[in-house]
Design brief:
Helix content is 26%, strand content 25%. The chain contains six helices and 15 strands. The chain has helices spanning 18-34, 45-62, 107-112, 115-125, 189-196, 251-258; strands at residues 36-39, 64-70, 91-98, 131-132, 140-145, 151-154, 161-167, 171-172, 175-178, 204-206, 213-216, 222-225, 228-229, 234-239, 241-242. By secondary structure, it is of the alpha+beta class. It has one domain (18-258): q2cbj1_9rhob like domain (Jelly Rolls, Sandwich), CATH 2.60.120. The relative contact order is 0.20. A seven-stranded antiparallel sheet has the order 1-11-7-14-5-3-2. The chain has a four-stranded antiparallel sheet with strand order 6-12-9-10, covered by helices on one side. Helix 1 packs across helix 4 (115-125).
Length: 262
C-alpha cells in the first residue's frame, strides 16, 4: 500500500509505534471536539487522480442515477408532527452511484479492505474490531454529483460514516454540517426547522480535497453537500464498516438505493 496510502504521514502499518498512538489520539480528540476527523493527503495525490480517471468511464455509462424528494429524516412522517411542520420541509437530492460489484479490483476497494485501516478506525472509535460489509452492492460505493446536483440535508442512520474524496469539483460541492442538532433525548424540531429555513448560524462549511479520508458522526449532526458548479464532478467513495461481520442490506434496501438487487 506504500504507493497508494501515505504511510509515512499516516503509519497505519505500524500499530506498535508511538507515531500510530499519536495519530489515534489526535483522531479521537478531533472526533470528540468536532464530530469528525480528516486525514488530508491520506491517498497520494497522483494515485487518487488516477483512481478518479479510471472510475470516470464506468460512472458515465453504468452509474445509477438517484433523484428524490425527501425530508431531513428520509421518512414520510414523524410521530407527533403534522405533515406541514417546518421540520419536515422537503428538499431535493440528485446523485449517481457505482456499487461494489462495479468497483472490483479498484484502488477504492483496496483501501476499503486494508486491514490496518479497519484496526485504526476501531481503535479511534473504541471498538473491539470493525468488519467490512458482506453486501455485494453496498459495502463500498462511489457517488458522483454533477453541475447543479446536491446531497441535501439529512441525518445518517449509522453511528459513523467513512468517506474518501476522489475528486473535488471546481466550485461548490462543499460539506456543510450542524453539530449536535439533536440528541437521543431531544429531537429539537424547532432547531431542525430553523436549519432548513437557513437561519441557523452554527452551520459550518468545509471543502474537502481529493485524497482526504473523512470520518464523521452524522447520526445527530445534520449535514449536506452544497450544489456542485462547473464541469468537474464531485466524486467520493463511501466505506461501510460494522461491528458485526456478515452485514447485508435487504433486497428492498438494495432496490431503493441502487435500483437493482444483488
Amino acid at each position: 500500500m506504500n504507493n497508494i496510502i501515505d504511510l509515512h504521514r499516516y503509519p497505519l502499518d505500524r500499530p506498535d509505534s508511538e507515531a500510530w498512538r499519536r495519530l489515534v489520539e489526535q483522531a479521537r480528540d478531533d472526533l470528540q471536539r468536532h464530530g469528525m476527523f480528516n486525514l488530508e493527503g491520506f491517498v497520494i495525490a497522483d494515485t487518487v487522480r488516477q483512481a478518479a480517471e479510471q472510475i470516470q468511464p464506468t460512472m458515465d455509462s453504468q452509474s445509477h442515477t438517484h433523484s428524490r424528494t425527501h425530508n431531513i429524516y428520509f421518512k414520510p412522517q414523524i410521530d407527533g408532527l403534522a405533515a406541514d411542520h417546518p421540520a419536515l420541509r422537503k428538499v431535493e437530492t440528485v446523485s449517481h452511484t457505482l456499487c461494489a460489484d462495479q468497483l472490483q479490483g479498484s484502488l477504492v476497494c483496496q483501501v476499503y479492505e486494508y486491514p490496518p485501516l479497519l484496526a485504526f478506525l476501531a481503535a479511534v472509535m473504541g471498538k473491539p474490531a470493525l468488519h467490512v460489509m458482506a453486501d455485494p452492492l453496498a459495502r463500498v460505493n462511489v457517488m458522483s454529483y454533477r453541475h447543479g446536483e446536491t446531497l441535501n440535508w439529512h441525518f445518517d442512520r449509522s453511528e459513523f460514516t467513512t468517506t474518501l474524496m476522489l475528486q473535488a469539483p471546481a466550485e461548490g460541492g462543499e460539506f456543510q454540517y450542524r453539530s449536535d442538532l439533536r440528541s437521543a433525548d431531544d429531537p429539537n424540531y424547532p432547531g431542525v426547522a430553523e436549519l432548513l429555513e437557513g437561519r441557523d448560524r452554527q452551520v459550518q462549511t468545509m471543502k474537502l480535497r481529493a485524497g482526504t479520508l473523512n470520518v464523521f458522526r452524522g447520526k445527530n449532526t445534520a449535514h449536506r453537500v452544497t450544489p456542485v458548479r462547473g464541469n468537474r464532478e464531485r466524486m467520493v467513495a463511501v466505506f461501510s464498516y460494522y461491528e458485526q461481520p456478515g452485514v447485508l442490506f435487504s433486497a428492498e434496501e438494495q432496490q431503493g438505493f441502487y435500483g437493482r438487487t444483488a
